[in-house]
Amino acid sequence: MANRKRLVMVRHGETVGNSSIRYYGRTDLELSELGRAQMRAVAIALAAQFGPGAPFSPIISSPFRRAREGARIICGDDARLDEIEEFREVDFGDFEGLTADEIAARFPDEFARWNRDRLAPSFTYPHGESRAGFTARVERGLARMLPLLDAPAARNAPAQEQPALLVAHRGVLRTIARRLTGVAPLIELGSIQIFARDGDSRWRVELLDATTHLVGLT
Question: I need a labelling partner for 93 at 20 to 30 A (CA). Which of 32, 55, 163, 196 fits?
Answer without folding.
Answer: 32
